[in-house]
Write a structure and sequence with these properties.
Elements: E1 9-12, E2 26-30, E3 38-40, E4 46-49, E5 64-73, E6 80-88, E7 98-99, E8 105-109, E9 115-122, E10 133-138, E11 145-148, E12 151-152, E13 154-159, E14 166-175, E15 181-191, H1 199-206, H2 211-235, E16 240-244, E17 251-255
Parallel strand pairs: 8-15
Antiparallel strand pairs: 1-4, 2-5, 3-4, 5-6, 7-9, 9-13, 10-12, 10-14, 11-13, 14-15, 16-17
Length: 258
C-alpha cells in the first residue's frame, strides 16, 4: 500500500543453494532502487520501507515498483545470485481532482442567448477514488453562471444571457467520487465571437499587427530613404557658371572645383 509508514517490514528474503554438498551461508545486498524506497538487511534479508512510497511516482509502472537484490554465498570465490523484489502498491485517496491546464482559463462567446464552454478535471488516483467528479459553483452566480451536468469528468459551464463582455473570476469546488476535493479558481473571458468563432483566437489575432500593415510601413520608410538619397546627390552635383574676362567681351564656361 502506498504511504506505508517508514520502517515497516515488507518482506524477508531467503535463498537456497542447489549444491547440497556444500553448506552455505548468505548475505543480501540491494542493487537498483530508483528512488531509494527500501533498505535490505545483509544478514537477515529483511526488506523495510525507507521512504514514503507513492503510487503516482514516475518510477511506478502499472502500480508496481521493482528493486534489484543480490545474494552472495560464503564460497571461495563467492558466487552471486540476482533477484527482483516486486512491490505492488495499492492506491489511496491522496490526490484531489484539479482543473486541467486548458480549463483554468476559458472563453465564452457573447450572445443574446445562453452560451457555454467545456471544463475538465483530472485526478491521479484510480477508481473508486477519482471520477465521476462533482462540480459546484460558489459565490454570486445565480442567473449568471451554472454547470450542467454537475457530475462527470468534463462538464458544461453555461453563461446566462444577462452576463456581458468582460473578465470574470469564478470559484468552483470539485470533488472526487468519495467527496474529497478543493475550491479552485476559474478565469472566464466573455467576448464577441461574430468575427472569429473562438474569441480566444480573435483576441490573439487582434493584439498582433497585421503583416500588410507592417509591409506598408516598411515600404514607406524605404521610399523616404530613396528620396533623401536623391536629394543628397542633387545637392552635391557639380555646378557650371559663366564669368566675364578683361581680355574679351565673350563669356567662358568655368567648371567649379567644389
Amino acid at each position: 500500500m502506498e504511504n506505508t509508514k517508514v520502517g515497516t517490514l515488507l518482506e524477508t528474503l531467503s535463498a537456497k543453494d542447489p549444491d547440497t554438498s556444500f553448506e552455505s551461508s548468505f548475505q543480501f545486498f540491494k542493487g537498483e532502487d530508483k528512488d531509494d524506497w527500501v533498505t535490505v538487511d545483509p544478514k537477515t534479508g529483511q526488506v523495510s520501507v525507507a521512504k514514503v512510497m507513492d503510487r503516482e511516482s514516475p518510477f511506478v509502472i502499472n502500480s508496481t515498483y521493482n528493486v534489484t537484490v543480490y545474494v552472495v554465498d560464503n564460497a571461495q570465490p563467492p558466487l552471486t545470485g540476482t533477484g527482483t523484489v516486486v512491490i505492488h502498491l495499492g492506491d489511496q485517496n491522496d490526490n484531489m481532482p484539479l482543473l486541467t491546464e486548458t480549463s483554468e482559463r476559458v472563453y465564452v462567446c457573447l450572445s443574446d442567448k445562453e452560451s457555454m464552454t467545456n471544463i475538465t478535471a483530472e485526478d491521479l488516483d484510480l477508481p473508486p477514488y477519482s471520477e465521476p467528479f462533482h462540480y459546484e459553483l460558489l459565490g454570486d452566480i445565480k442567473q449568471k453562471w451554472r454547470i450542467e451536468p454537475n457530475t462527470g469528468k468534463t462538464v458544461n459551464l453555461i453563461r446566462e444571457k444577462n452576463v456581458y463582455s468582460g473578465h470574470y473570476k469564478l470559484q468552483i469546488k470539485i470533488s472526487d467520487s468519495q467527496g474529497f476535493g478543493s475550491v479552485q479558481n476559474l478565469s472566464v473571458t466573455v467576448c464577441d465571437c461574430v468575427i472569429t468563432p473562438s474569441c480566444h483566437v480573435h483576441r490573439s489575432v487582434a493584439t498582433r499587427p497585421s503583416f500588410s500593415a507592417i509591409g506598408i510601413i516598411a515600404f514607406a520608410l524605404i521610399l523616404l530613404l530613396v528620396f533623401l538619397l536623391m536629394a543628397l546627390l542633387l545637392s552635391c552635383k557639380k555646378k557650371k557658371f559663366m564669368i566675364p574676362t578683361d581680355e574679351t567681351p565673350d563669356w567662358y564656361l568655368i567648371n567649379s572645383q567644389h
